[in-house]
Design brief:
elongated; two-stranded antiparallel sheet; Arc Repressor Mutant, subunit A
Length: about 90
């Protein structure tokens, strides 16, 4: 099998679009959370370059602000519809 044939077999990923709310939450995770941009991107199945672009764009628009809620107290779960859902940790 040639390289061209194997490339043809791979299906191209459908271009996704994300709401401004989703992007804002991802930016908050990167700026105010404990994970790197690469880790956030990997955890949410996003490309690192897209997340880095969102963060850079937010910084250049002087959009830095306090997070809406402290992510350190929440677990974020990516829902099947592509939205993030914040969950409070359960106490032991």
């Amino acid at each position: 099998m040639s390289i061209t044939e194997s490339m043809e077999e791979k299906k191209r990923r459908v271009r996704r679009s994300f709401s401004d709310q989703f992007k804002a939450e991802v930016i908050d995770l990167c700026l105010w959370g404990t994970k790197t941009i690469a880790e956030v991107a990997r955890d949410l199945d996003l490309t690192e370059s897209a997340v880095r672009h969102w963060v850079t764009q937010a910084e250049s628009e002087n959009a830095l602000r306090e997070p809406k809620f402290p992510f350190s107290r929440y677990f974020l779960v990516l829902q099947p519809d592509g939205t993030l859902r914040g969950l409070m940790p359960t106490s032991a």
